[in-house]
UniProtKB/TrEMBL annotation:
<dbReference type="GO" id="GO:0016020">
    <property type="term" value="C:membrane"/>
</dbReference>
<protein>
    <recommendedName>
        <fullName>O-antigen ligase-related domain-containing protein</fullName>
    </recommendedName>
</protein>
<feature type="transmembrane region" description="Helical">
    <location>
        <begin position="32"/>
        <end position="52"/>
    </location>
</feature>
<feature type="transmembrane region" description="Helical">
    <location>
        <begin position="238"/>
        <end position="256"/>
    </location>
</feature>
<feature type="transmembrane region" description="Helical">
    <location>
        <begin position="359"/>
        <end position="388"/>
    </location>
</feature>
<feature type="transmembrane region" description="Helical">
    <location>
        <begin position="262"/>
        <end position="279"/>
    </location>
</feature>
<keyword id="KW-1133">Transmembrane helix</keyword>
<dbReference type="InterPro" id="IPR051533">
    <property type="entry name" value="WaaL-like"/>
</dbReference>
<feature type="transmembrane region" description="Helical">
    <location>
        <begin position="90"/>
        <end position="108"/>
    </location>
</feature>
<feature type="transmembrane region" description="Helical">
    <location>
        <begin position="400"/>
        <end position="418"/>
    </location>
</feature>
<feature type="transmembrane region" description="Helical">
    <location>
        <begin position="154"/>
        <end position="182"/>
    </location>
</feature>
<keyword id="KW-0472">Membrane</keyword>
<dbReference type="InterPro" id="IPR007016">
    <property type="entry name" value="O-antigen_ligase-rel_domated"/>
</dbReference>
<keyword id="KW-0812">Transmembrane</keyword>
<feature type="transmembrane region" description="Helical">
    <location>
        <begin position="286"/>
        <end position="307"/>
    </location>
</feature>
<feature type="transmembrane region" description="Helical">
    <location>
        <begin position="202"/>
        <end position="226"/>
    </location>
</feature>
<dbReference type="Pfam" id="PF04932">
    <property type="entry name" value="Wzy_C"/>
</dbReference>
Length: 460
């Protein structure tokens, strides 16, 4: 067994109960990492519009698994034999985020809401609970580096599958996402179709995501992890497969024809370039980037020019002017309720406007406290991943922590370009990465009681 598959810390004893010890590598039938892997698989493999009948988008199969994770975490806190040992900073930031949401919910209720806004508040509260369940169980429940790598392998394979779907859509001009189905589910709403962009017959694809921007962004967030396994997977075959997935996901970003996706990819490369990569990796990434650009120049003429014009023609882009025109309305709503906002989810696009900026949307719907909670979620995750990067001794652990940092930075930036939390594939990917930041902080902590802290298993 290689050093990548087996981490030395995983063999250290952990206190299970009074005078009862085990190791963090105990094999169990069901654990948090297994359910997180299932959630990630369902999140990426199934179209975002596929839900359990009679439920809203909170009823996506992946999100129902997330709700089960929330329930499991609560049950673990209520039972002495199941309770997590040691501190975990992510618990405090989750508590802050939940309290901010509940206070805003109460403020919205007190001002009196029409039925549509009341339903939207309830829906957002359910989504928040599911979101936080993923954060908590990833932070507290993943037992060791080996199981963490298992979750991340499912993540990059899921991203690779979504990229393949997008390329099939591009080549065949058939939206195969509409044919992906799971027994017991039904399509709610419309699956993202092809959208023309530019004057050369180009069109955008979204894979299994809700929107083209979301698709490009989640691809960019997954690329650093694919590169991680291309460097550190235990076998040559696994490294080669991860490298292919990394190239596929990188190449999939331009076909979404999204400014946000390009910004996200550049952000990921810059962070990894500075924080993690040696010069050999930097050269390899640059060569792959040049090869991808060259391939698109030959196979899809006009695509790179269209993307370039999106950055050079800001003054003529109606999507940019539409965003800036909304700032006056944001100021109006903010002045009415600056601290708690109108209520989570109450700025309904069909009634008011589409606000393509999650930071401003937080300000309007949840006020200053809501923005502070959203910022705290990112900053604490960033800090924990950075601390873990500094503590880690093995190159692969450091690289993984740097990949986490890149995803959090991406989220902070792209949330200023679209209403990111409204798109559940993106938002639950963010939840997973925030939770993993708490997990790697725990894994690298010098105190054994904290390193070995984790939720107990069903199989005890």
């Amino acid at each position: 067994m290689t050093s990548t598959a087996l981490h030395p810390v995983d063999l250290e004893p952990t206190l299970l109960d009074e005078r009862t010890y085990g190791t963090r590598r105990r094999l169990t039938r069901i654990d948090a990492a297994g359910l997180l892997s299932l959630m990630v698989f369902l999140l990426y493999a199934l179209p975002a519009q596929l839900i359990v009948p009679e439920l809203t988008y909170a009823g996506r199969p992946a999100l129902l698994v997330a709700f089960a994770l929330w329930c499991w975490w609560l049950l673990a806190r209520l039972n002495r034999r199941l309770v997590m040992l040691g501190p975990q900073p992510m618990r405090w930031v989750v508590l802050f985020y939940l309290l901010a949401t509940l206070l805003s919910y109460l403020g919205g209720t007190l001002r009196g809401l029409p039925i549509m806004e009341s339903n939207a508040q309830n829906f957002t509260l359910i989504l928040t609970v599911e979101f936080l369940g993923v954060v908590l169980m990833a932070a507290d429940g993943i037992p060791n580096w080996q199981r963490l790598n298992g979750v991340l392998r499912v993540y990059i394979w899921g991203g690779g599958f979504m990229a393949v779907v997008a390329f099939i859509q591009l080549i065949s001009k058939v939206n195969i996402a509409a044919y992906i189905w799971l027994p017991g589910t039904a399509i709610h709403g419309e699956i993202a179709d092809f959208q023309n962009r530019g004057d050369s017959g180009l069109f955008r694809v979204a894979g299994t995501a809700t929107h083209y921007i979301e698709f490009a962004t989640v691809m960019a967030m997954a690329v650093p992890f694919a590169i991680h396994f291309a460097r550190f997977a235990p076998s040559k075959r696994a490294r080669a497969a991860a490298a292919v997935i990394a190239v596929l996901m990188t190449a999939a970003i331009p076909i979404a024809i999204s400014r946000t996706g390009v910004i996200a990819l550049i952000t990921a490369v810059v962070v990894m370039f500075i924080a993690a990569w040696n010069w050999r990796t930097r050269y390899n990434v640059m060569l792959v980037g040049i090869a991808v650009i060259g391939a698109f120049s030959v196979l899809k003429p006009g695509l790179l020019g269209t993307i370039k014009s999106m950055f050079t023609s800001f003054d003529e882009d109606p999507s940019i002017s539409g965003r800036t025109d909304d700032y006056t309305i944001v100021g109006h709503y903010f002045a009415q309720r600056p601290w708690l906002g109108r209520g989570p989810g109450t700025l309904i696009p069909d009634l008011y406007l589409i606000l393509d900026n999650q930071w401003l949307l937080q300000l309007v719907t949840m006020g200053i406290i809501g923005v502070a909670a959203f910022a705290a979620l990112h900053l604490v995750s960033l800090t924990l991943a950075w601390i873990a990067l500094k503590r880690a001794e093995r190159p692969e652990d450091k690289h993984l922590c740097a990949a986490l940092i890149s995803t959090i930075v991406i989220s902070m930036l792209v949330s200023a370009t679209f209403d990111s939390l409204a798109f559940t594939t993106f938002s639950f990917t963010l939840a997973l990465c925030c939770g993993i930041s708490g997990a790697v902080w725990r894994f690298t902590h010098p105190a054994r009681a904290i390193r070995t802290s984790s939720v107990r298993w069903f199989a005890e």
